[in-house]
Automatic annotation (TrEMBL):
Its main location: membrane. This is Putative ABC transport system permease protein. The chain crosses the membrane at residues 12-30, 62-79, 86-105, 132-153, 183-203, 209-230, 239-260, 266-283. InterPro entries: ABC_transp_permease. One of its GO terms (molecular function) is transmembrane transporter activity. It is a multi-pass membrane protein. The keyword Transport does not apply. The lineage of its organism: Bacteria, Bacillati, Bacillota, Clostridia, Eubacteriales.
Length: 314
């Protein structure tokens, strides 16, 4: 692969990183199987393209897309907490509704931004940043998102959201409204997904009504790959793992396309990546391999009691 292809894979991995972080919030932190992602990603792209074509600033379009993504997540949370709809079904219902909403927003199946001003075209006009402008912009956005997300999850509200995913009954017994915590978690997760959709639409120069199909699988694949490579012992490492998994996933996709795989088989290849990533811990256990990450997790789980245990050499 040439340098331009590697650079493109890195840029796309960072741009899709916000979506992977959104999936991480819902699936890992909140322990909520949210399928709204497929519709929210397209929602962010559709709103951004529509606003830019109306003459609004691409930054304003980006902000509106993030807010609408958060609103979509709140709808899913309301279906579950307010109407007692099952978590999986609530996400499916919102995702289906968003398909029609996205078509309404766009007015057609595809909107082109090739001749419009986007945040990437404006950065590209700065001569000093050529050709690293899009990469630096994507990296800046990811650093800001990871930093703000890390700080939020360390607050009392963020800790309550994490506790809701870990043990909902326990945190409810302490007087925490778990319904509100799910509302906050799903709103943040889908806002990040919409942010990624907005960035990708401006980067690619178009918005398509089907661009979000299978996005949840891609997000899960990136999360699993990142956790296998980086680990998830701490919150910060988990966030970095999501970004690393997104970059590796996009690099693998780019490599496979360069080797001649038809683009129509990408969804099948994505499913295979998820299966391999899920089966990797079992295969490693069957083969008798023990990683440093697993040993570290064992020490973390046993805590202070490990000090009292005799060593195996004794």
């Amino acid at each position: 692969m040439s340098l331009s292809i590697w650079l493109g894979s890195l840029e796309q991995g960072l741009l899709w990183g916000a979506m992977v972080l959104g999936v991480y919030i819902t699936f890992r932190v909140l322990d909520y199987p949210d399928l709204t992602v497929d519709g929210t990603f397209t929602l962010g792209a559709a709103i951004t393209a529509h606003c830019i074509l109306l003459g609004y600033s691409p930054w304003v379009a980006l902000l509106v897309a993030v807010l609408c993504g958060g609103l979509a997540g709140m709808v899913t949370a309301f279906l579950h907490t307010g109407l007692r709809v099952a978590p999986l079904l609530s996400g499916i219902l919102t995702m289906i509704a968003l398909y029609s909403i996205n078509l309404r927003i766009m007015g057609q199946a595809n909107l082109s931004l090739l001749r419009e001003q986007t945040i990437f075209t404006r950065v590209g006009e700065i001569a000093l940043l050529e050709p690293w402008g899009p990469l630096l912009l994507a990296l800046t956005v990811v650093v800001l998102v990871v930093g703000l997300l890390y700080l939020f999850l360390q607050t009392e509200l963020g800790m309550s959201v994490r506790a809701t995913g870990d043990n909902e009954q326990m945190i409810r017994s302490l007087g925490v409204n778990t319904g509100t915590m799910k509302l906050v978690g799903l709103a943040i997760g889908n806002a990040l997904v919409a942010l990624s959709g907005s960035l990708v639409a401006q980067y690619q120069g178009f918005a398509d009504v089907g661009m979000g199909i299978g996005m949840i699988i891609a997000g899960l694949a990136a999360v699993i790959i990142g956790e296998a490579l980086v680990g998830n012992q701490t919150l910060f490492r988990s966030l970095l793992a999501a970004i690393a998994g997104s970059i590796v996933y996009r690099a693998v996709i780019g490599l496979v396309l360069q080797l001649g795989m038809p683009a129509t088989d990408l969804k099948l290849f994505t499913s295979l990546i998820v299966v391999i990533a899920l089966a990797f811990p079992l295969v490693r256990q069957r083969l008798g391999f023990r990683s440093l990450r697993l040993r570290g997790e064992g020490v973390a789980e046993t805590g202070k009691y490990t000090q009292d245990l005799p060593s195996r050499r004794d």
